Amino acid sequence: METKWRLAAIVIALVMILAPALPAQDEGEMADSMPAEIQMEPPPAPELVLGEDVPNDGGHKLKLTWGYPAEWSDSVARFLIFRGDAPDGEFKSLGEAARGVTTYLDIGSKIKDNSDYMANDHDFYYKVIAVANNGTESEPAIGGPFQTSGQWFHWGKVPVLVGVVLFGFFTVLFINAARKGKELFVRPLAGIEAVDEAIGRATEMGKPILYVLGIGTAADIATIASFTILGRVAKKVAEYQTDLIVPCYEPIVMSVAQDVVKSAYMEAGRPDQYSDDQVFFVTNAQFAYVAGVNGIMVRDLPATNFYLGYFAAESLILAETGNSIGAIQIAGTDQITQIPFFVVACDYTLIGEELYAASAYLGRDPLLLGSLKAEDWGKGILMVLMAVGVLATAFGWNAIRELVRVIL
Amino acid sequence: MIVFLVSLFMVVQYYVPLDSWAWMYQYLIDWTIIIGVFALLLGIWSLWRVNFNKIKQRAENWEYAVITLAGLLIMMIVGFVPGWGNLNNYVYEHFFYYILVPIQATMFSLLAFFISSAAFRAFRARSLLATLLLFAGLVIMIRFVPMGQVSSYISDLSGWILRVPNLAAKRAIIIGIGLGAIATAFKIMFGIERAYLGRD
User: Fold this and answer.
1) If 0-12 CB within 10 Å is exposed, 13-18 middle and 19+ buried, where does residue A206 land?
2) Of the four, A81, A124, B108, B170, which is 20 to 30 A from B72 by CA?
3) Number of domains forming the structure of chain B
4) Which of A280, A313, A341 sits opposite B50 (nearest CB)?
5) Interface test mutation site (partner B, options A160, A235, A252, A347, max chain B beta carbons within 10 A)
6) What's the domain range around B1?
7) What ipTM describes this predicted complex?
8) Is residue B73, in this structure, part of any structural domain at all?
């Protein structure tokens, strides 16, 4: 009996030891006991691989689309995308598209030395492989040849071009009208009307005038507009023989401002009064600049402060310091977030476009006034367009919306 | 003529997406950076001359000019001295992070006090419009204050003020700025506006 039990134990032990080494079960037999998903055969290959050059660009971009049977869409986890120079050549992996997505945007590099460089007007072939949920891959589907090319015109920007041409037409029209002597009415701006008064006040008090051009570069429109106003102010200052201080944040701005002020002094017939020390560089660190300008305000106590140009967080620090020394302050900027600060702390504020228009107001040059009228007409047209846009959206007139849609 | 041609190119390139035009655009932009670097020398020269003259003439508050020039020279020396080599050296970093940065942060922090003093002046109910401003300002300010059920009404009201009247006014200004910028560009392009060149 004992021998019988011993033999049984030895057999069981042998079975346990040898079981892992036994040949695997036939795949067909195993399939009966596996979930349906794993039983799935390799998915079918994608079909109709098509490539289309992306329009309105410099090339190097291609939109790839392919078809796939709807009944298989839930069983396919992703699609693998490859690009090659020949259908039977080597393909480079680009990426993958998620389940249910049958498009892929191939954005190649425009730089020749880059590994993902995609030349324009060159034949490319694409390979798409479907990968099932269980990891099995379909046969590859190859499409091509496809080419990318650069375009000479961005058709998505036509509405912008039409707007600019229309605006240019109005500008030329009103400038010509002004040249012919037509009286153009422009509403008075309190900030501009106050410039003469502010300069006169400084002259009477025997104190200097501080002109701050902001922290913009010479390429900012606000700074360019400020140069124009600086020229007019400097001319008046030279006529009244008052001191002018122009601390600058940017060296190029300083250089241009020196030229502007020098020319204004010469125009006023007082070139001897001009000194490069009036227009000087402080620093191009934002708050160090504020400290420098505030120091000038507190020490020299200017009677009039102009803050015209591009301003950021320093606007209120400057304007409040100017307010504390009792200076009359005229400000103007196109930075929306800073306008409230100037409105609160300054006596007069030029809001947004008023800064650009200031030179026309100061000079009363018919050519400049003509461009102001064009702006008014531009605003009128935009108001009409906005009303039409609201109606088009409300009533679902998609054709009108598409007409003015800008594609960037 | 140069201004006209360059600005014409800049306008046209906006509508031409070709690589060669994009390259040319970038090339011109790069030039502004190069000019900016050289212009910095002009700036340093200007700073030096103005402050040096103040010291030489013993002008009022000339002591500040000494500190300015001392700061300029010390930072330049520390940055250029052989052996200390680069901008990561200890002394340079020490001056930058433990002197300049805290001073600038101090200047920035003044803004909080100036906002209070400016708000105090702005929020005086002297007229109907000023009273409306005061009311709108108060609603916006107290929207984050926990006040039970009332908080949700105030939050809704402040959201409406920011989204509707405030945004409408901002957009109106932005449209004006956009048109003004185009008009200014036209004026510069066609030579109507030349004051920035020092000419009337």
Assistant:
1) exposed
2) B108
3) 2
4) A280
5) A252
6) 1-84
7) 0.87
8) yes
